[in-house]
Amino acid sequence: MRVGFIGLGSQGGPMARRIVEGGYDLTLWARRPATLEPFAGTAAKIADSPAELAAASDLVCLCVVGDDDVTEVLTGDSGVLAGLASGGIVAIHSTVHPDTCRDLAESAADQGVSLIDAPVSGGAPAVGEGQLLVMVGGEADVVERCRPVFATYGDPIVHLGPLGSGQVAKILNNLLFTANMGSAVSALELGEALGIPRDKLGEVVTRGSANSKALSSIAAFGGRTDQLAAIAGALLQKDVRHAASIADAASAPQGAVFDAADAALSALEHPR
What we know:
By secondary structure, the protein is of the alpha/beta class. The protein has helices at 12-21, 50-55, 67-75, 98-109, 123-128, 140-150, 165-193, 198-205, 213-219, 226-249, 255-267, and strands at 2-6, 25-29, 45-46, 59-62, 89-92, 114-117, 120-121, 132-137, 154-161. The strands form two sheets. It has a six-stranded parallel β-sheet, sandwiched between helices. Strands 7-8-9 form a three-stranded mixed β-sheet. The chain is globular.
């Protein structure tokens, strides 16, 4: 299978490297030439446009930031769908609204292209160990065709159901992470009010039974959220908004998880 990869950021870059190191014919495209520099000594080829990349690929993986980016890269005049032949596959590794995937899947189907959603979790360290969590939604036969490529960087690879299922799972994961962050901030603020410095309480709790990935993330910045807000605030805001939209569309109650998540977003100065 010939693979194209777009989105060579802190997570996508290592994913693409695992693909080419796994022996796959890999083509890359990037808006910023600097993100291509780490591949200079590899067998990866460079395309001048997403369409040119797609024409050289059977599977195109996207790991760009958000819904608008995915849509632009796929549907622009020189986008992926302008170059991908019938029978090709698009895998969306970005975390986007499931409706975005469904809408794009309709456009792809018009030219015989299959689309699956395959958001990921774990970051660069998990990629390096081949243990990135891949959450997949889409037709089972299409998912199985992609599984060997995903296995170069992912384990486990979980097929959750029809198109959009992977996005729902990833968005709920990020919602709960944000809620955990809200609870952690509240506990650190309470500790500070009771005379225990945030950094010291963080040092203790990260080694105790109440530890969480969210708390560890805050503790890494001395118990403060200002630096973390610059890194993750906008992304978590996007995902909580998506979670609320999905819940509202299903007439599902939002519940306490949203209250805690909203507390985190307020602390990060990115309110929902």
